Amino acid sequence: LVGVNIKIDQLNSEDLDQILIRGKHRIPRIDLLLRKFHDVTFNLDAKNINAAKALVKLLNSDKSLQNLCLGSFSHKTMIYMRKFLKRDLPTSFSRWEVFSLILDIKFNKDTKYNASYLQIPKSYLGYKLISKKLLAYCKKNGIKVHVWTINERNEMKKLIGIGVDGIMTDNCRTLLDVVRKYKSVSYTHLT
Predict the structure, then answer these.
(1) What's residue 186's pLDDT?
(2) Distance, CA of 63 to CA of 42 (rounded, Å)
C-alpha cells in the first residue's frame, strides 16, 4: 500500500509525513480526520498503554475533538484512559467488561457501567454474543452496540434488522450500499 517494509511504531511523525499512500496521498492525521468528518463517530482503539498515553495527551490538549469513542481490549488501558482524560468522552467496554456485562445479563443483574459502547463480534469461541436480550438490555441502559467484523451483505442486513447501532467492516462500500438501500425502509422489516 505504501511501499515501506517497516513497523509503524518504529516511525516518528516526521517519518510518517514522508510516506505516501499509493505514491500520491499523505497518511492523514487524526486531528484532520476528526475535523473533516465531524458528523461521524470515530472509534479510536489504543492497542497498548503508550498509544493510550499519546491519545490522552492529544485529547487533553485539543478539547474541540468531540466525535470519538475510545476503546481498548485491555482493561488496564481503559482504566488509564478514563482516569487521565480530563473531559467526558464515550468509551467502549474492555474485554473484561464485556464478559461481566454478558454474565450480568444472563443472571438478570442490573449493573452500572463506565462504558457506553459495546463493540463485540457476533460470536466468540462458538458462543453467540448478539441476541435480542442483549440488544434490549443495552438499549434500556443507553449502551450502543457495534458488531465486528461483518463483511457479508446479508449479515449486515440482518444485524441492522435486529437493531444494532453500528457495524465494523472491511467492506465499507458494501455497508454504505446496504445502509443507503434501506435508509427509507424501517430496519425492522429487513431480512
Answers:
(1) 44
(2) 15
